Amino acid sequence: MRFDEAYSGNVFIGSHKDVETAEAIIYGMPMDWTVSFRPGSRFGPARIREVSLGLEEYSPYIDRHLEEVKYFDAGDIPLPFGNAQRSLDMIEDYVGSIIEAGKFPLGMGGEHLVSWPIFKAMYKKYPDLAIIHIDAHADLREEYEGEPLSHSTPIRKACGLIGAENVYSFGIRSGMREEFQYAKESGMHMYKFDVLEPLKNVLPTLAGRPVYVTIDIDVLDPAHAPGTGTAEAGGITSKELLESITAITKSDICVVGADLVEVAPAYDSSEQTQIAASKFIREMLLGWVQKNK
């Protein structure tokens, strides 16, 4: 399946009908095959789209309107249930076709392992790629209970792919002792607990570089985002994450793609998690799509 094939489901608010003129492609990755606690993030992309209809199309954060960005919601990739490797291969090919077409890929997960094939597709295009990773968890394991394909491994895989020194993690407050030790010894940049202030300090050092941004919704405190598979107490607020997205928008880095993962709607009957996620997607569209032009 390519991103320009027909999709008949709900779309993110303001999605254009003309894929050819679209600057960005929104796509879903409904996979939660390797989660270690609570499944359900495969339903995240569909529900984020549905609740986006309650959004205002104007952002007072950066004074822009969704009419100013041309984007096409291509729907969810039809991933084979339970087959992790085949699903990852399909994601890599799918995102590769978006990049080849010169469009901005904006993905919605799904578990965090879905970011791994995107990293590979982006690295083929941008050999000097840097990654900004915003998350509660280090995701630096080499395997989980003997399985190397796990949602706890994508950032460790990224370090091996692009060089640990090109990976920047923010908001981290959970992981094995060995993961934090690896972060110290490998040369990667890990900032524990906080996001906004360390991010502001790092952004000038990445000026002009192609940067991929991956956001795990569980970086938020469960009070702000209970709808996720592995909630972790002690997180940041929705306001701080919005401010962080705005800081990236106002920086001189070249954002070449992004994703937001781990929204699991079943665990949040109030829908505050998916409502927040849809707002973050709006701000990413408005702020980042044209930064690589």
One letter per element, helices H and strands E, the order comes to EHEEEHEHEHEHEHEHEH
Shape: globular
Category from helices, strands and their pairing: alpha/beta
Major sheet: 8 strands, parallel
Using the 3D structure, state the CATH architecture: 3-Layer(aba) Sandwich
Rounded radius of gyration (Å): 17 Å
Put simply, the count of helices is 8
Count of DSSP E strands? 10
Proportion of residues in β-strands:
15-25%
Structurally, how many domains make up the residues? Answer: 1
Strand order of the largest sheet: 4-1-5-10-9-6-7-8
Ranges with pLDDT <50 over ≥5 residues? Answer: none
The CATH class name reads Alpha Beta
Whole-Å distance between the termini?
26 Å
Look at the structure and give the mean pLDDT: 95
How much helix is in the residues?
25-40%
